[in-house]
Design a protein that fits this description.
It is a single chain. Helix 2 (76-90) packs parallel to helix 5. The chain has helices spanning 2-15, 76-90, 110-120, 133-142, 182-199, and strands at 29-31, 34-36, 44-47, 52-54, 62-68, 96-102, 126-130, 148-150, 158-160, 163-167, 173-178. The chain contains 5 helices and 11 strands. The termini are far apart. It is globular. The strands form 3 sheets. Strands 4-3-7-6-5-10-11 form a 7-stranded mixed β-sheet, with helices on both faces. By secondary structure, the chain is α+β, with helices and mostly antiparallel strands.
């Protein structure tokens, strides 16, 4: 009896995956018999230092993306506070970056983004980017699958999702987290650790 139990336990543990793996989000298509998941589209924006930021900026890295605007009177300050908790954990890891897109490029100039980043005392791993409103809105809705559009009836005149999006080195979305929920922040911190292990394989 005890040997049967021992073999059962050995079988159970040998069949468990060595590490947890995050799902790839989005509806896949099948190409030549293989599932192909959607990827973040090509982009080119300008950061708070006036430098060009593209997909290549994040090659070999993972990053957390969000969509905000500096004059946002509702959820943006909370989102920034929660994302800063994540940043604090990973700020010294060059493989983890942060990418905040303004959805109000007419007012959030490079200079204002720079001033905001400086006030937050953030290092070079966190980018605040601007570009044409159309390109930012299109990237948000088509690649990151999060809403972003003008609405005069909304506070601040703009609508955007409150999600924090975890992107892997293959430009896949691996997690979406409520940027106003501290419990979701903890989940994001944990999932970044899981994704880092995958990246290092």
């Amino acid at each position: 009896m005890k040997y049967t139990l021992l073999f059962t336990l050995l079988f159970f543990f040998s069949c468990k995956p060595e590490t947890e793996r995050l799902p790839i989000l989005g509806e896949p298509t099948t190409i030549q018999g293989k599932k192909v998941y959607p990827r973040i589209g090509d982009f080119s924006f300008t950061d708070q230092d006036g430098k060009k930021i593209t997909n290549r900026t994040f090659e070999g890295k993972i990053y957390v993306a969000d969509f905000i605007f500096l004059s946002c009177p509702t959820i943006c300050p909370i989102m920034n506070q929660e994302l800063k908790k994540v940043y604090t954990v990973y700020q010294n890891n060059s493989k983890v970056n942060f990418l905040s897109h303004t959805i109000d490029p007419e007012h959030d100039t490079v200079e204002k983004l720079k001033a905001f980043k400086t006030s937050q005392k953030l290092n070079s791993h966190w980018f605040f980017v601007t570009g044409s409103k159309d390109s930012i809105f299109e990237l948000a809705t088509k690649s990151y699958m999060t809403p972003a559009y003008p609405d005069a009836e909304e506070p601040g005149g703009l609508v955007h999702g409150g999600g924090l999006l975890l992107i892997d080195n293959n430009r896949h979305i691996r997690g979406v987290y409520d940027g106003t929920n501290p419990e979701e922040t903890k989940r994001l911190i944990n999932d970044i650790g899981i994704l880092l292990k995958e990246l290092m394989k």
